[in-house]
Design a protein that fits this description.
Blueprint: H1 17-33, E1 37-41, E2 49-52, H2 56-59, H3 64-69, H4 73-77, H5 83-87, H6 93-96, E3 98-106, E4 112-123, E5 129-138, H7 140-181, H8 183-223, H9 230-242, H10 244-275, E6 284-286, H11 288-303, E7 307-312, E8 319-321, H12 323-340, E9 345-354, E10 357-364, H13 371-374, H14 394-404, E11 408-414, E12 418-426
Helix pairs in contact: 8-9, 8-10, 8-11, 10-11, 11-12, 12-14
């Protein structure tokens, strides 16, 4: 191939042969050393090559003359998996004027290189397609890096999934540890109502026996009624002997007390069930007040002998959240508040709502937190409690749960006077919005 094909000689040649020689040489040098292979084809269906720059020999291993001589060279060397996508859209070149493809091209040693092919249609002065000019660039290294990055990304996603699974398991273990620490109190809370319900059932059993006896004596009196006014006196005697007036009042009290006791047991069991959900990753609309009350049912026995609960609930909208996980946060804060009080004190629970955010403040009148420890309390495994009194994970997990909800947790403490933790949460967390990508779970 000579540069006559591009109009650099003959009638179109510059008058000054020295300028022509210098320009042609410079152009030849640039074409031979550019990173891209420059080529031209006919603007027809077979796209036969009419020119290929000399650097094709260095990049692909083929001599340009051989590439031009074979009318099917380009088509025959595209990877079979890549060819259909190119051929099906190549006609768009005549509509759009330019196309770009990335495909694998077979080189002389039989292997494949990834190439970026940029094609542009050239028209003559009448708008008729005249030639197609293309530029082939070797992007094999870039593709290798992309594949490596994709593999690393998949590994990272797998690792993130394993970390999320480990976090969920750790969270569940901390839940169970918290319940384990409170097990004696929970058992006491359940045994108390069961005890008096059992006692009430014994009394009711005796009362029922008395009532059946009264009924039997009434029936006997009706079968053989005494003469005159003796029947009324007999009925009154039976009634007085059984003390029916007292039975009527006491039975109503015993039943009401028993129903209340059974409700307390049911509430505690339901609270435990709600609190202990494993792997709950579904966002749901829930009431934070219901969550707080449910958690108080679990920790109530732990707190009632040392602190008075002062609830100051504001008006809260329902919140989109992972309800069971927020209950874990409330439990950690309430238990910590109780443990901070050495004698008798007050645990206050305040809630409020402002500008699309809700907040829950749990404060205590306990010992407070030393300033030196205040910035470390959310670190995993950091604890100032005695060995065996805590895992050091409660506040760290609580911090992670609040962050997962797109919120924040603040702490203010004054040694000797108490501590306040305030949890701020958006009504609809970013992670739960339909237009946001999913996390998980976390």
């Amino acid at each position: 191939m000579q540069f006559e094909d591009f109009g650099f000689s003959g009638a179109n040649a510059p008058a000054d042969s020295a300028v022509e020689s210098t320009s042609a040489g410079r152009l030849q040098y640039l074409l031979d050393n550019t990173p891209s292979i420059i080529y031209c084809t006919v603007p027809s269906g077979d796209f036969k090559m009419t020119f290929v720059s000399n650097n094709a020999l260095n990049v692909l291993g083929y001599h340009p003359d051989a590439m031009v001589a074979d009318p099917n060279f380009w088509f025959d060397h595209i990877h079979p998996d890549d060819a259909p996508g190119i051929f099906s859209s190549l006609a768009q070149l005549f509509v759009q004027g330019a196309r770009a493809y990335e495909y694998r091209f077979r080189v002389r040693d039989g292997g494949y290189l990834w190439m970026h092919d940029s094609l542009r249609l050239v028209r003559d002065e009448h708008g008729v397609p005249f030639e197609v000019i293309g530029s082939l660039t070797d992007i094999t290294e870039r593709k290798r890096m992309e594949a490596m990055l994709q593999a690393r990304g998949e590994e990272q996603q797998l690792l993130i999934g394993k970390l999320q699974q480990a976090h969920d398991q750790l969270l569940q273990a901390e839940k169970m540890a918290s319940i384990g620490q409170l097990a004696a109190g929970i058992a006491h809370e359940i045994n108390n109502p069961i005890g008096f319900v059992n006692s009430n059932m014994s009394s009711l059993q005796a009362y029922v026996a008395t009532l059946f006896d009264v009924i039997a004596r009434y029936e006997a009196a009706l079968r053989e009624p005494p003469a005159g006014a003796a029947l009324a006196a007999c009925v009154e005697q039976v009634r007085a002997g059984a003390d029916l007036a007292y039975l009527q009042t006491d039975m109503a009290d015993l039943l009401a007390e028993s129903m209340d006791g059974l409700k307390r047991v049911r509430d505690i069991v339901q609270s435990l069930k709600d609190f202990s959900h494993v792997g709950e990753n579904d966002w749901q609309i829930a009431s934070l007040h219901a969550g707080l009350d449910s958690t108080l049912n679990i920790v109530g026995n732990e707190l009632k002998y040392k602190a008075r609960i002062d609830k100051q609930y504001g008006q809260l909208p329902s919140v989109t959240c992972l309800a069971s996980q927020l209950n874990q946060v409330f439990m950690n804060l309430l238990v910590n508040a109780g443990q901070a009080i050495s004698g008798e004190g007050v645990i206050s629970i305040r809630t409020g709502h402002l500008d699309g955010w809700v907040w829950v403040e749990i404060g205590d009148t306990g010992a407070g937190i030393a300033p030196a420890h205040l910035h470390r309390i959310f670190e995993p495994f950091f604890t100032t409690k005695a060995v065996g009194s805590g895992t050091g994970l409660g506040l760290s997990l609580s911090y992670g749960i609040v962050m997962k909800h797109g919120g924040r947790i603040e702490v203010a403490s004054e040694p000797g006077r108490g501590t306040r933790f305030t949890v701020h949460l958006p009504v609809v967390p970013p992670a739960a919005r339909p237009d946001q990508p999913s996390l998980g779970g976390g």
